[in-house]
Amino acid sequence: MNRPDNKDKQRVCLAGNGRNIGLFLLVLLLPILAGACRKAASEAEVRGTRRPAAEAIAEADQLYTGRSDLTKVRQALVALRQSQADDPTNYELAWRLAKFNYYLGEHSSESTEKEKSFHDGIAAGKLAVKLQDGKPDGHFWLGANYGGNAKLSVLAGLSDFEDIKQEMETVIKLDEGYQSGSAYLALGQLYLEAPRMLGGDSQKAVEYLEKGVRLGPTNALLRWQLASAYAELHRYDEARKQIDYLLAMKPAPGYEPEYEEAVAEVRKLQEKLKQESR
Question: How many Å from the N-terminal Cα to the C-terminal Cα in the chain?
Fold first, then answer.
């Protein structure tokens, strides 16, 4: 029998070492491969459980019905933002973000929150217009946020006047009766509240507001602003007629907070007119 020489022993030793190295590498790679599989499965699970935008919109709309409590408006904004992170080109999310930010900015008592809300609302409105330029929602709420921002400073007012006008005129071209004539409401407010040096004109405000009331006779905010515009022009009898009409009417369904706001403001105006007539 032939005895194995040194070369045979070396080959056997190398083969054994190769198997050992292979096993070592396999043991080393198994945790890495397992981790990668777990990560892929986790990412697939996240994608599979992503919340549909329609659900977030339904939740936000429901929260917005209780908008007199600003906490609910903030919660609605969180729901919309989270959904937009997954669906950044969704028009319905974008214009609602503009709308809800406007409401928060208009009613918050904190200056920092007001400023941020209007700025966020402008960004959301611009996105909505970019996504669906031929629909009125984005234009309207973009213009509304420009208006809110204009109230924060004189410089903002100087730059936003034409932007507000342009957006609201676009809404009128697309859908004159949008939100019960609210584009005319916005233009009326613009001309009523702006200083004359910026283009303010009470007579022009009345003309816009009268058009709006014809389109939205139950729009409480329109009635209030028209009464204010008449009073500004010393047309007191017409102002009182608008006040009486508003106080006698019922709020439009879904617009109870706006009705209550308008009633509170016309009562102040009513008292002011009483004092002036003495």
Answer: 136
